[in-house]
């Protein structure tokens, strides 16, 4: 008998692969079960709905991104702004690898779901927003460190981190639309030049 944890993980892995390569709307429970080699009854034993499975997929995707991308890109062996540059380089390398393997550049799994579902599913929208909040927090910490070290002039750290993430996601979407990861190579470095001046204090 296959352990329950293995069955649940296969469902998460299959849903993540199918939704990322296609779309949420295009992938049904039957397709996920077939891909995972799991019966439909087993699916509903672990997840009451496709929405609940998608929330688990988002959690798993963020954990994997943290371990394989963020922890490595933001490792403190370089100055903080150089870590942001490494983050962009690693993102480009992953998207290029996916394009070579599948013929399609997949873009951001969180941005993809947010764009597709933010007006249709409030629960998933909030989960995606929480992921973006975590990414902004990581960028904010690097900016604060850069300012403290004197590597960056004083800026509105929160607003600059938010603007950097918004620009980055926009470039990813543009690259996905063109199906060309080199758009990231060309445009993403401009993210490092974004500066939002500090808010003037009230008199």
Describe this structure in words.
The protein is mostly helical. It has two domains: 48 residues, Orthogonal Bundle (Arc Repressor Mutant, subunit A), CATH 1.10.10; 143 residues, Tetracycline Repressor, domain 2, CATH 1.10.357. The chain contains nine helices and no strands. Helix 1 packs across helix 2 and helix 4 packs across helix 5. The longest helix is centred in the last third of the chain and has 28 residues. It is elongated.
Summarize this structure briefly.
The chain contains nine helices and no strands. With 203 residues, the chain is mainly alpha-helical. Helix 5 packs across helix 7 and helix 7 packs across helix 8.
In one word, what is the shape? elongated
Query: Structural class, from secondary structure content?
Result: mainly alpha
Number of helices: 9
Cα-based radius of gyration, to the nearest Å: 19 Å
CATH superfamily label of the largest domain:
Tetracycline Repressor, domain 2
How much helical structure, as a percent, in the residues?
A: over 70%
Please give the CATH architecture of the largest domain.
Orthogonal Bundle
Distance between the amino and carboxyl termini: 71 Å
**What is the CATH topology of the largest domain?**
Tetracycline Repressor, domain 2
Helix-strand topology string: HHHHHHHHH
- Can you summarize the main beta sheet? none
Domains counted in the coordinates: how many? 2
